Amino acid sequence: MLQYESSLDAMRDAVLFPIGQALHMVSFKAMKIVPAHYIISKARDRGDLQPGKTVVETSSGNFALGMAIVCNRLNHPFVAIGDPAIDPAFKRQLEMLGGRVEIVTDKKGSQGYQKARLDRLQEILAAEQGAFWCRQYDNENNGLAYANIARELLEIIGPRLILVAPVGSGGSSCGIAAALRAGGADCTLVGVDTFNSVLFGQIDGPRKLRGLGNTIMPGNLKHTLFDDVHWVSSELADHFTRKLYKATGHFRGPTTGAAFAVVRFVRNRYPDAPIVFLSPDDGSRYVDTTFASNDDSPAYDQLRPVEIGHPTAYDANTEWAWMKWDRSDIHRFQ
């Protein structure tokens, strides 16, 4: 059996599973524990976060959970600022770890919940002396936290691989790819986004698929690292999340399903290279959503992406689109 020095070491560990021929999945219990631990530990080392002081972040998902677990283990109070997307069970899960969860309900007009969450965060920083803001979207330690995972992939998979990664803050995708290339790997990076996300040049709008995509542009997202970009619908991601579970027994979340959907196309585009895809979290939060239905349409198994020449060149009914990003700067498409 595996033995760890602490529960944090165990929870932030990643497992590499074989899924098919030259296909592996990097599986996390909750991936954001990795950057949360690294960011908070570095802040403590620098003296930016004193013992017993509050840690705060705007998050309705996995970073909130990662921060909560780390703060619980390191004896820091925390505040997670979210929006109505946080379901009551997940809110209780966070609160049981000793912090508080604040839900903003004012969208601040066209600027959405994210602006309201950031405004509330600034109020907390002003009111609570010594409070530390993780800044997951812009803190370079988010990406640097994944350096060990990149080194392990290089040792196990070898110097040539395709990395298929869901993209939200840019931390895991860019952090792993940059570290792989710095270590001498020939790494092709394929980003997986969803429609109406601003990350790769689309216009902000309603998004059903949570856990990837964004309404703001993170500083940690380094566009020039990406070779290809895919946009997938929530329905397609859910279908392939269930398909992965039925085929392998891996009970994972829908961001994993989004990456798994893209893997089939990537295999045809890069037929000879080992493929690794990231699986950020398990399926426990999605029992009543992704796994609420077992009625899968065979049409999704035959679906192929529409190749587009510009991020906005798709119609409203598109389930899956992709483009050759060619390590371009985002300004090329703005």
Entry summary:
The chain has 334 residues and is of the alpha/beta class. The chain has helices spanning 7-11, 33-46, 62-74, 88-95, 112-127, 141-144, 147-156, 171-182, 234-248, 254-269, 299-302, and strands at residues 14-20, 23-28, 55-58, 78-82, 100-103, 132-133, 160-166, 186-194, 228-232, 275-279, 306-307, 320-324.
Average pLDDT level: 94
The share of residues in helices is 25-40%
CATH topology of the largest domain: Rossmann fold
**What is the second-level CATH architecture of the largest domain?**
3-Layer(aba) Sandwich
Structural class: alpha/beta
**Residue ranges: pLDDT <50 for 5 or more in a row?**
none
Radius of gyration: 19 Å
Number of helices: 11
InterPro entries: Cys_Synth/Cystath_Beta-Synth, TrpB-like_PALP, TrpB-like_PALP_sf
Keywords: Pyridoxal phosphate
Protein name: Pyridoxal-5'-phosphate-dependent protein subunit beta
Organism: Burkholderia ubonensis
Topology:
Layout: H1 7-11, E1 14-20, E2 23-28, H2 33-46, E3 55-58, H3 62-74, E4 78-82, H4 88-95, E5 100-103, H5 112-127, E6 132-133, H6 141-144, H7 147-156, E7 160-166, H8 171-182, E8 186-194, E9 228-232, H9 234-248, H10 254-269, E10 275-279, H11 299-302, E11 306-307, E12 320-324
Parallel strand pairs: 2-10, 3-4, 3-6, 4-5, 7-8, 7-10, 8-9, 11-12
Antiparallel strand pairs: 1-2, 9-12
Keywords: Pyridoxal phosphate
Domain Tryptophan synthase beta chain-like PALP: 30-281
Cofactor: pyridoxal 5'-phosphate
